[in-house]
Amino acid sequence: MSNDNIALIVGATGLSGSYAGQHLKAQGWRVVTLSRGAADLAWSDRHIAADLEDAATAGAALAAASDVTHVFYCTWSRQTNEAENVRVNAAMIRTLFDGIAKAPLRHAALVTGLKHYLGSFDDYAKTKPYTPFLESSPRLPGPNFYYAQEDVLFEMAARRGFAWSVHRPHTMIGFAIGNAMNMAVTLAVYATICKHKGQPFVFPGSPEQYHAVTDVTDARLLAEQLHWAATTPAAANLAFNTANGDLFRWTWLWEQIAAYFGLAVGAYPGHPQPLATQMADAPALWAEIVAKHRLQDIPVTRLASWWHSDADLGRTLECFTDMTNSRTRGFTAYQQTPRSFFAVFDALRARRIIPA
Fold first, then answer.
1. DSSP letter string over 63-96?
2. By the 8 A CB rule, do 188 and 348 touch?
3. Architecture in CATH of 6-169
4. How many CA within 13 A on the CB side of residue 32?
5. pLDDT higher than threshold 70 for residue 321
6. Rounded alpha-carbon distances, angstroms, from residue 5 to 69, 124, 226
């Protein structure tokens, strides 16, 4: 048991935060959760509702976290351009650390992602990086809110004497509702609509992604790595790529997902067909599906993030990661990628969010 460890999970209702919090709770930690609004989380010992974009009110709310020993920062706020992403997201993480200035921090973890190597939303994939993406790679030129978040973390760690870690997952696979970056749920909804319409399951992305080698990150594996880094002295003050440990091509994984849903695979047209365009009529179709199968009445706009899956599946370059920093220091967790997807699909069926 680790009863002297008190974790603050920032972004506790998202994919990375919710899985990290549940994992730490299972390991005997006390878990304090933070999100913008009220949240009823069975695994939370104490919840704080605070909007880190509002420094004045967040500072007062964060007084309830003055005893935390570890921070797991798993949130961000999307703005209209990268300059605003940098300004707002750097200010948010600074507000967090200012608000817990008296806490006896020993470690703080920041979850970012592969835009560290691919560039910001404004400059995405304009420079083709070396693959696999190396944790030792220098930063790309230009503004990037991941770099701004890191800089605040490094500053606070140096000033206050706690250790840090940065975690860079690829596309995250896990069960969460209302998450803006949830490919597994998005593909489950897309497959369900294809079945409802009697259409084949067609890969909607770029030929480069369809044929290239790639990887993804199971949210359960990220949670394990966050825990490992926070409790392993050799992992202090390092950045870590985070992926399942296997590689795949969509050419064959797409067939396995289609088989799970009992769908025929449609011929790939050789060019992107974005889901955001294809699924323009999804709200009405989803209402029909919910009524027909007596599903939970959750709007499709809360389930599917068409735009984000389009971005991931529409990349025009190869994307996969190297995990040298954690592998050489003893982190050996592994997850088979098809099972990552199937576990989410099973959870959606069990909760009657998609038809069985």
1. GGGTT-SEEEE------SSHHHHHHHHHHHHHHH
2. yes
3. 3-Layer(aba) Sandwich (3.40)
4. 23
5. yes
6. 6, 38, 14
**pTM for this prediction:** 0.94
- Active-site entry in 115, 117, 190, 195: 115
* Catalytic member of 19, 73, 117, 146: 146
Lowest mean pLDDT among 93-97, 284-288, 305-309: 305-309
Give the H/E segment covering residue 328.
none
Amino acid at 102: K
- Burial of 20 per CB tally in 10 Å (0-12, 13-18, 19+): buried
126 counts as catalytic:
no
- CA triple 114-327-343, angle to 5 deg: 65
Judge whether 146 counts as a catalytic residue. Answer: yes
Question: How is the chain split into domains, by residue range?
Answer: 6-169, 176-214+247-319+336-350
